[in-house]
Amino acid sequence: MIQMPSIRVNENLHIVLWLVKDLAWLMEFRLLGALMIAPTLTMAFFITWQCRAERRELVHAIAVILWILANSTWMIGDFYFGMRGHGLAQGFFIGGLSLLAVYYLLVMPLEHWRRNTRATNG
Questions:
Q1: Is 54 helix (H, G, I), strand (E, B) or coil?
Q2: Which has the least CB within 10 A, 3, 20, 49, 52?
């Protein structure tokens, strides 16, 4: 039977991929930077799939996907479109922040309230 790597192992690999992508951006290695988008996003989607059973982790994993999309859009705009693409990147960043805001300001307090209500009434 094949055992899947733990989420932690995948997160650590994901950090390496992301750092290589961003270093390529910083050093203006256009091809390497562009090529690193696919494995970085693939790992982010895989980690998100691994987190699907726990809402808090899932929300954060989706926010990371949006962050990578923003970061990658920004990089591609810098490399190939004369520094344009910041507006699209901004949309991804705002999407990720909005998702986290909804979770922390609405979902999490509601879940906490429901748990307390059940404990009090149960």
A1: coil
A2: 3
CA distance 93 to 63: 9
| DSSP tag of 1 | -
φ, ψ at 52 (rounded to 5°): -60, -25
Q: Are 91 and 77 in contact (CB under 8 A)?
A: no
Round to whole Å and give the CA distance between 60 and 99: 9
Q: How confident is the model at residue 85 (pLDDT cuts 50, 70, 90)?
A: confident
Instruction: State residue 32 phi and psi, 5-degree precision.
Output: -60, -45
| Cα–Cα distance for residue pair 20/117, rounded to 1 Å | 47
Output phi, psi for 40, to 5 deg.
Answer: -65, -45
Q: Which pTM value belongs to this model?
A: 0.88
